[in-house]
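Entry 14. Ran structure prediction on the chain below.
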Amino acid sequence: MVLSERQQKELHLSMVEYLREMNFNQAADALKQEANVQPEDFEDKHKGLLERKWTTVTKLQKKVQELTKALEDAQQEARVPRARANTDPSTWVPRPPATQEMAGHRLPVTAVKFHPKFTVMVTASEDATIKMWDYETGEFERTLKGHTNAVNDLAFDEAGHQLASCSTDMTIKIWSMDKYSCVKTLSGHDHNVSGVVFHPSGDYLISSSRDKTVKIWELGTGFCTKTIEAGNDWVRKVALSPDASLLATASNDHTCRVWDYNTGDCKHVLQDQDHVIEHVAFAPPASHAAINLMVFGSKPSADTERKGPFIATACRDKTICLYDAGAGQKLATLIGHDNWVRQVAFCPGGKYLLSTADDKTMRVWDIANKRVYKTIPAHSHFASCVGKAVLRAMHVLGRHDGCACSYQQQRNTRGNWQRRFACQSLGMQLRCKPK
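Output, structure tokens:
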């Protein structure tokens, strides 16, 4: 017999208790008599013991299966010859498992941004706070408090001296990264402020709001210098082109509009999607080659290639559209998500586009071939948002349980190239193994 005498006795007692709970009294009495169980042997710990043991075994079996799969994957990677290892940073994409988990918010995370120069990440939440983290170690650093309602978006200026946050409390706050305090509050919107972006000069800030407007703010004075009536419904997000000549807005009226930044004139109204457009992002110059390859099928000549700028839009109709923002033409529709697409971000290498959606996945798109290159399960619920830090080639996703998880891919050589990705998703907590 494998079990010791004491273990056998505990098993018999827990079995009798289980049979009693299930009202199998005759079977319980028969087992008591056969096993020679005495009434004084029963204790409170025997109640429910059999069920607890059973569920523990089931969980352990599941864990063993997960670890076996992880071991098989690791062995498969180990069999790849070193000479064939991928050393081109532009082709790297995020890969699970997550390496860090940063938990602290009490309500869903709505935005995540990386500092352009330091190993600092900031998260915004519906709990009206902004939290700062060291993304290398996953350690919490501080909380910035000042908003009285959900914080909807964040933006760093290019130098990293200032952080802008916008909120459902209808204000925008400018935070000093030297003093970690609010140095200015911008008021003027008549409804939720849902998007902010800095002008490259650092002297101006652009915001979008549920009051159907886009405002341009002069940070030196705190005054609004221009208001653009940007559509017929909530303007969810605003993006600025790399050369700061164009604005793009995503709206609840099912349109993406392209604006001249200097004049405020609408250049194009893009109406190719059938639901709320949640997000819009301009492609970096590194992506232009892949987009031209997608359009022409091969590398075009300098005379025929499209110059851009290009944008991608995320829509609740489950699609992503790519546009030539300069010409106002749709170039492609990416289909693959099974639910609302929440946000998009171009990988700094230029070859890939990341998207997150309510189908609980993050997808990596091969732009040139218009196909899903990789699907990454983003926890057990919705994947809400994705952000990036260009200098460190990092991307982040948002999670409704108030956590942020980071994914890392790095070259296994003496070089120090690294690519980190942070993932937030809606729902249950993913258990992450620190490297």
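The first strand starts at residue 98 and ends at 103. Will compare against last week's run tomorrow.
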